Amino acid sequence: MFDTPYDARSVVHAYVYENLDGLQNAALLLGGYCWLERTQRLIDQLHRSPTITRHLQRELMEILDLLLLEHVHDEDRPESGYFAKLDPAQPYVEEICLLAEGLADAIDLVSKGTERKAQTATLTHKGEI
């Protein structure tokens, strides 16, 4: 999607940039064109945003849920149909698992960093630092 790398502003930015193709392919396999387009919008928004906003965080969590197969048992969701078509013996299954694990770790690192900044700001405001 992007010809040149952009500055990795966070671990999430770096992870998504390093895994552009894999994330888009996984979104297409697990959720069809709707999820592919949603993933591409997220990638574009990350490219334009220097920070992880609440909106971006929600979208990241939605894509993580897709990768973690959170909705495949709900027959009212299209993800269940896409999941039924997957061949568990294919190598893309392992790649999807690795993508989910990596994205979860990146999100976790960013959220812990945000919590630390908030705690430091609170302590500074109270005059404890």
Can you tell me the number of structural domains? 1
Count of helix runs: 5
Structural class: mainly alpha
Q: What's the rounded overall pLDDT mean?
A: 86
- Taking pLDDT < 50 over at least 5 consecutive residues as the criterion, the unreliable ranges are 1-6, 118-125
Rounded to the nearest angstrom, the radius of gyration is: 17 Å
C-alpha termini separation: 44 Å
Name the beta content range: under 5%
The rough form would be described as globular
Biggest beta sheet attributes: none
Percent range for helical residues? over 70%
Helix and strand sequence: HHHHH
Q: Count the strands?
A: 0
Task: Give me the secondary-structure topology.
Elements: H1 11-18, H2 20-48, H3 54-67, H4 78-84, H5 91-126
Helix pairs in contact: 1-2, 1-5, 2-3, 2-4, 3-5
Walk me through this protein's architecture.
The protein is mainly alpha-helical and 129 residues long. The chain has one domain (11-126). Helices cover 73% and strands 0% of the residues. The protein has helices at 11-18, 20-48, 54-67, 78-84, 91-126. The radius of gyration is 17 Å and the shape is globular. The protein starts with 10 loop residues before the first helix and ends with a helix. Residues 1-6 and 118-125 have low confidence and may be disordered.
